[in-house]
User: Which sequence fits this backbone?
C-alpha cells in the first residue's frame, strides 16, 4: 500500500482543525452569513490567531483567487489545506459561470442534458422486449460509458493539479496540501456506472500516492447510508481501498431519523474504518443543518453527532494515523435557515463553527488526555466553549466495539 501519511504506525495522533471558507469570504457567500471578513488576506491571519491549522476550499475557487497566492499566504502563517473537488457542475474548472473558467487544460463536465440522454438510453435498453434486467445491467450503454469517462477524467485532472499546485505537505517542505475531498459522481448513477468509476479511480490514487476522501454527500453516489453500505458490501475490493470524507449530517437527513436509530448507527459503524477526514455539521431528520447546534432543542442531535465523530477518531487511532483532520461545516443561507421575510440567519455561523471546533478540541482532551497532541484553538471575542455537551455511551445496538481511548481495540464475546 503506497498510501502516504496520515496512515502509518505512529503511537501518537495529532488533531488538526481546518476552517472552511464557505460562508467566510465574499466569494463563498460570506455576505449572506454576515461574515466578519471579506477575502483570504483578511481571513487567514485571523484564523491563524485563533489557532487553526489550515483551511478547506474548492479547487476551482483556488484557481480563481490564484493558487500561488493561496499557497504563499498559508505558508506565511504556517497553515495547511484540504482541497475540495467535484466531478460535475459549475464548480468544475472546465465549466464557466462560477469563479471564472473554463480554465485551460480542464475538461468540460457532463451537462444535465447529456446525463438525461444517458439515463434515457439506459431506460430504453432495460425496457426493451425480452430483456432480463440483471443481465442487461452488467454492461453500460455507450452514453453511460461516456459519462463515466468524463467524470473520471474531470476527477483526475483536479486531483493531479491540486497536488502539483499546492504541494504534498508530507513530501514537499513548502507543500500545504493535506488531502483532496471529492464530491464524486451523482446519486442517479447506476451501480455499474459507479463501479466503472471507482475501481480505476482508486487504483490511480494508490499508484500516484494521492490521498482522496470521497464524501458521503447528498446528490453524490454515496448520498445514502444504505446505498453506500450495500455497494461496499458487494465490492470488498473497493471497501478495502476507498478513503472517505464523512459528512454524516447528510445521512441522518436522507434516512429521516435521529441519532438513536440502531440501523443508521450500524451503517455508520460499517464505514468508520474507511474515514480519513470529517465534516462536522449537525443534521437532523428533515435537513442537513440544524438552525443552531448550541440551542437546547438541538443539543441531543449535537451530542449524537459527536459520538459518531468520536468513533472516527478511535478508529483512526487504531489504524495508526499520525494526524486526524476535520472542519466544522455549518453553511450560510440558504443552507442555513433564516427568519421568514427577512433573510436574517437564525444563528451566526462564524460563531457556530468556532463553537463546534472548540467542543471537538475539548472532547479530544477528554478522550485521550495528554497522550496525543491536541489542536491549540482559543476562544474568540464572541464565542467560547459554552454551552457544554456530554459524552454519550455507545448504544447497545451497535454490533462491534471500537478502540478505547488508549488505542487498543475492545472486543466483545
Assistant:
Amino acid at each position: 500500500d503506497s498510501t502516504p501519511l496520515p496512515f502509518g504506525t505512529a503511537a501518537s495522533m495529532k488533531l488538526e482543525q481546518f476552517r472552511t471558507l464557505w460562508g467566510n469570504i465574499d466569494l463563498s457567500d460570506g455576505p449572506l452569513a454576515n461574515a466578519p471578513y471579506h477575502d483570504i488576506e483578511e481571513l487567514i491571519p485571523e484564523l491563524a490567531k485563533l489557532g487553526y491549522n489550515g483551511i478547506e476550499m474548492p479547487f476551482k475557487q483556488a484557481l480563481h483567487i490564484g493558487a500561488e497566492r493561496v499557497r504563499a499566504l498559508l505558508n506565511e502563517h504556517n497553515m495547511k489545506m484540504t482541497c475540495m473537488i467535484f466531478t460535475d457542475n459549475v464548480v468544475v474548472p472546465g465549466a464557466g459561470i462560477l469563479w471564472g473558467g473554463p480554465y485551460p487544460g480542464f475538461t468540460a463536465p457532463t451537462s444535465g442534458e447529456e446525463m438525461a440522454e444517458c439515463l434515457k438510453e439506459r431506460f430504453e435498453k432495460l425496457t426493451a422486449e425480452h430483456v432480463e434486467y440483471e443481465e442487461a445491467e452488467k454492461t453500460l450503454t455507450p452514453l453511460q460509458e461516456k459519462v463515466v469517462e468524463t467524470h473520471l477524467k474531470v476527477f483526475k485532472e483536479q486531483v493531479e493539479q491540486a497536488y502539483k499546485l499546492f504541494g504534498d505537505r508530507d513530501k514537499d517542505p513548502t507543500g500545504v496540501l493535506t488531502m483532496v475531498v471529492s464530491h464524486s459522481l451523482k446519486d442517479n448513477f447506476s451501480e455499474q456506472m459507479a463501479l466503472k468509476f471507482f475501481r480505476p479511480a482508486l487504483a490511480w490514487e494508490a499508484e500516484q500516492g494521492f490521498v482522496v476522501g470521497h464524501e458521503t454527500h447528498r446528490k453524490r453516489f454515496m448520498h445514502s447510508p444504505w446505498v453506500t453500505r450495500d455497494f461496499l458490501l458487494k465490492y470488498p475490493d473497493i471497501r478495502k481501498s476507498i478513503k472517505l470524507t464523512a459528512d454524516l449530517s447528510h445521512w441522518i437527513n436522507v434516512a429521516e431519523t435521529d441519532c438513536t436509530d440502531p440501523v443508521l448507527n450500524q451503517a455508520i459503524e460499517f464505514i468508520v474504518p474507511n474515514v480519513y477526514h470529517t465534516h462536522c455539521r449537525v443534521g437532523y431528520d428533515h435537513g442537513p443543518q440544524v438552525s443552531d447546534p448550541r440551542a437546547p432543542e438541538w443539543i441531543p442531535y449535537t451530542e449524537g453527532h459527536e459520538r459518531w465523530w468520536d468513533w472516527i477518531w478511535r478508529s483512526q487511532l487504531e489504524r495508526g494515523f499520525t494526524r486526524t483532520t476535520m472542519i466544522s461545516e455549518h453553511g450560510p443561507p440558504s443552507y442555513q435557515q433564516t427568519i421568514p421575510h427577512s433573510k436574517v440567519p437564525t444563528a451566526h455561523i462564524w460563531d457556530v463553527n468556532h463553537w463546534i471546533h472548540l467542543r471537538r478540541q475539548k472532547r479530544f482532551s477528554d478522550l485521550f488526555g495528554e497522550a496525543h497532541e491536541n489542536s491549540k484553538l482559543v476562544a474568540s471575542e464572541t464565542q467560547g466553549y459554552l454551552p457544554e455537551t456530554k459524552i454519550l455511551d455507545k448504544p447497545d445496538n451497535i454490533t462491534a466495539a471500537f478502540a478505547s481511548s488508549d488505542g487498543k481495540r475492545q472486543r466483545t464475546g
Q: What stands out?
A: The chain is about 40% helix and 10% strand. The radius of gyration is 21 Å.
